[in-house]
Each structure stands twice: as C-alpha cells, then as structure tokens.
C-alpha cells in the first residue's frame, strides 16, 4: 500500500495505491488522521484510481473518517472508484454517506 497526500483548495487529497485491508487500513487511518487533525482542512478526497482491492476494513476506514470530518462540518468525496470496488461501496452503504465523483477536479469544485 502506498499513500500520497496533498492539500489543494484547503482540501486534503489522499491518493491510495495497492490493497486496503486490515493491516493497511490502520496505516492509512493514522496518516490521514495525523494530517487532518493538525491542519485546518474541511474536506477529504480519497482517490481510488490505483487501489486493487478493498475489504470491510477499508469500509470501516471510510466510515471512521466520515464521522471525524462531518463532526467538523466537512465532507468526503470519493474519486475514480473502479467497478470492483464500486460493488463493495454500494452494498456497504458508503455512497449514502459520501459522494462519488469522476475525478479530483470535479470533487474539489463540489466540496
């Protein structure tokens, strides 16, 4: 798993690569929380373009970040979700909480 983060328009953009499972979701959570909690950012965008697998731990990761961000008045956007991950997101109800966007620029303009 690889995590690359950047800040654009006061939004934390998290580019993920590889598999999101029990082990890697902990690393992602710690990294995202550290950046989010030490900055004054309102929103988070997760880019799934290079994610090859995600299990329920990944769903838990997203739900946890959703709670953290919405408590601060922010939103989460999901971009470039592949069809394999789309089923997991849909069945778990993630899309009821977070909006999916075609790409990063569209997400930035809507958050």
CATH superfamily: STAS domain
Task: Find the count of extended strands (DSSP E, 2+ residues).
Answer: 5
CATH class (first level) name: Alpha Beta
Please describe the biggest sheet, giving its number of strands, its sense, and whether it closes into a barrel.
5 strands, mixed
Structural class: alpha/beta
Shape: globular
CATH architecture: 2-Layer Sandwich
How large is the share of residues in beta strands? 25-35%
Residue runs with pLDDT of under 50 for 5 or more positions:
none
Q: At the third CATH level, what is the topology name?
A: Transcription Regulator spoIIAA
List strands and helices in order, with pairings.
Layout: E1 2-8, E2 11-20, H1 22-37, E3 43-54, H2 56-71, E4 76-79, H3 83-92, H4 94-97, E5 99-101, H5 104-110
Parallel strand pairs: 2-3, 3-4, 4-5
Antiparallel strand pairs: 1-2
Helix pairs in contact: 1-2
Features:
111 residues, alpha/beta, 32% strand, Transcription Regulator spoIIAA, globular, single chain, five-stranded mixed sheet, 5 helices
């Amino acid at each position: 798993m690889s995590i690359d983060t950047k800040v654009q328009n006061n939004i934390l953009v998290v580019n993920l690569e590889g598999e999101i499972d029990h082990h890697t979701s902990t690393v992602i959570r710690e990294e995202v929380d550290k950046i989010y909690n030490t900055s004054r950012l309102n929103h988070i965008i997760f880019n799934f373009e290079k994610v090859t697998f995600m299990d329920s731990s990944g769903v838990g990761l997203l739900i946890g970040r959703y709670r953290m961000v919405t408590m601060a008045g922010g939103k989460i956007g999901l971009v470039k979700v592949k069809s394999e991950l789309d089923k997991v997101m849909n069945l778990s109800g993630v899309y009821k909480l977070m909006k999916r966007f075609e790409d990063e620029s569209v997400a930035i303009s809507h958050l």
